[in-house]
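Lab notebook, bench 4. Still working through the backlog of constructs that have no structural model yet. Next entry is a single chain of 330 residues. Request: give me the structure tokens for it.
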Amino acid sequence: MSAPVTAPATADGFTRLRPRRSCLAVPGSNPRFLEKAQGLPADQVFLDLEDACAPLAKEGARHTIVDALNNGDWTGKTRVVRVNDWTTHWTYRDVVTVVEGAGPNLDCIMLPKVQDATQIKALDLLLTQIEKTMGFEVGKIGIEAQIENAKGLVNVDEIAGASQRMETIVFGPADFMASINMKTLVVGQQPPGYGADAYHYILMRILMAARTHDLQAIDGPFLQIRDVDAYREVAGRAAALGFDGKWVLHPGQVAAANEIFSPGQEDYDHAELILDAYDYCTSEAGGAKGSAMLGDEMIDEASRKMALVIAGKGRAAGMTRTSKFEAPEA
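Model written out:
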């Protein structure tokens, strides 16, 4: 039995903010890939019953995934299964088979092609019934919602707030591009003829909905798996906006994602120094001041909030600080 990723618990008592810099997609029907994924340094692994599984392989893949979750070593990874979407006839059996068979060793269910809040509520209800029937802890299994078409994006606020189980909003670029008739066949790259960033509104819309409900925002896949430089460029755009991670489809993309969605060492050190300096200046020993100078920089409560974000990402990535705060002499 593998150990879950540890992270602070939220108000409902369950871990909802897990490291997800790199989210590795693994075909649920391929035992060799499932075994290999356990040894890769991805923060999250999602075992796929949807696009990565041929229709004739889906039923068998459910049982393959159950075996992998129960008997594999997923230590340090968030364990997710992507089921088929509610417009298919596979969804309920995907959820029942996987959760009944491996619920204690499962962190989240990812639901693709989410178009409105009722689809999240239906999954929440099904999970609750299974947990009660099986004697599992009710509410422990989280939900990741994948936005893959225009309707889903229009309804993303309601989707984000549809369940306490919600953990992430995930952008699914390929289906989304098709749904709006975007003029390109290269997933994730800019369409020809448009001078700005064609994905900026989509990504920001997802990010705002996620942050409104204290969820994580995850960018979807980049299909040119051997072009790591292009992957870095696309991932860097999402990271710059504030996304928490991105899908990886190939082991060669894992290291890039982990690096890009972690702060640089200098930024991490600076963030920790700001937090230490602010704690000191607001203390009795530091004069109980609302602001202070850190070198040539004035810091205050707003600085602390910004530093918490960077420091939190660095800590989640296992970074070690290389500088130490020293209180100024009286």
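Notes after review: The longest strand covers residues 22-27. The beta strands are 22-27, 44-48, 78-82, 108-111, 142-147, 166-171, 216-219, 245-248, 292-294, 297-299. Flag for follow-up if needed.
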